[in-house]
Amino acid sequence: MEERAEEIDLSKPRLRAMGKKLPPSTPTAGRRRKGPSLVPLSACKRRRTPEASGWASLPTDVVHLVTSRLLAGDVVDYIVFRAVCSGWRSCTSDARDPTLSRPDLWPRGWVALCDGDGVRPDDAGEIGFFHTRTARRLRVRLPELRRHRIIGFTRGLIILLNKRTAAVRVLHPFTRVVVDLPSLVPVFHDAVRNRNSVLDMNAAVCSASATSIAVVAWFPWTHVVIGAEAGRPTWEVLHQGLFLKSILPFQGRLYATVAMGGSRKIMQLYPRSPHPVLARVPNDFGDPGLCGYFLVESGGRVLLAVHHLTAQHCGTEPFQQHAYKLFALDIDRGELIPVNCLSGHALFLSRDRSLSVSARDLPSVNSNSIYFSLHRDPVVVHSVRTGFSERLAVSCQIHDGKDRIRPSVRLSPLLTIF
């Protein structure tokens, strides 16, 4: 995408309508009209009068219908809608949920983009975001990033680690609401005890209850999974001795592919369950140690993408040996169901995160395809329909042809193609 991302501070209550054209009778928020103004509204319940005209006089039930549809799509549109006039704000819920316990107010669909310049987000004080369904881009100034390191993203929420105190906080990038959690220092000394693990630790946001969130963290070099609920004073050890391969937060819970002996299983990490194993991955792809397992949310369901090698034929390139098999996870029945179509979506798979994007508004992205990166091939696409793989690029902003260069934001290098 060549156009410049919008720069925006969505935390301000009287936000300009972000360039969207409004009806002529609707004044832009924050701008004073020279002529007679509309009659003040009281919670959108006042009956329409000759002095009150335009969108600001919508009945309350119509406003609620509009906002419910906006929330089903993008919380940014909901925030902009409420910023248009005081009447709409008075009859709708504030997007600044102080507990971050309402998933409908999370920035769903928004993912952080890697700038590829090597500048850390805490130094830049801003992050670029991309919406996987609408292809919209926003660049958000976030002074809260100062003195923090990003350790995870969940549905647009940013999980931060304080560099000095090791305290964890969850930040909503568009409302600037912050939920603080305790320091990792005590549990780190008791259970983790590996300083290098902190450099590559990951974390995700889960739903602890109807009014509270939890953060679950895991470490690559120490097979420990810990969790803490907002408002609780300490972290607790959830699992030990697990060899985690791919982890996915989904509908407030946390799932992972786990290596157990010579097989791979999908289990629930949070909340803890007496029967955590949900499904067993078929051993139909050769040595499991040579396969890759990726969990990704797509179209409201959990998909498992198994990366495996096919037989090499004379004259084929090495990247053409790489193929994928897709399964949908039936959580209730504990089954993996083969999938042959992505319904207009494309998957971007990497060790850090895996994403599903709608190809409808992205002409450079092929639908029903899987994009991935190899050691010497930074961008390869696999067609789910034909089963063939194709190399799209021999160079990448954060890939020098030999090794992946550590990006400024932890994200698949494939997303730099946008």
UniProtKB/TrEMBL annotation:
Tell me the superkingdom of the source: Eukaryota
- The name of this protein is KIB1-4 beta-propeller domain-containing protein
Q: Basic and acidic residues bias located where?
A: 1-12
Which segments carry the region annotation Disordered?
1-37
Q: What is the lineage of its organism?
A: Eukaryota, Viridiplantae, Streptophyta, Embryophyta, Tracheophyta
| Entries under InterPro entries matching the protein | F-box-like_dom_sf, KIB1-4_b-propeller
Pfam families per UniProt: Beta-prop_KIB1-4
Q: What species is given as this protein's source? A: Aegilops tauschii subsp. strangulata (Goatgrass)
Q: Tell me the ranges covered by the KIB1-4 beta-propeller domain, including all copies.
A: 134-377
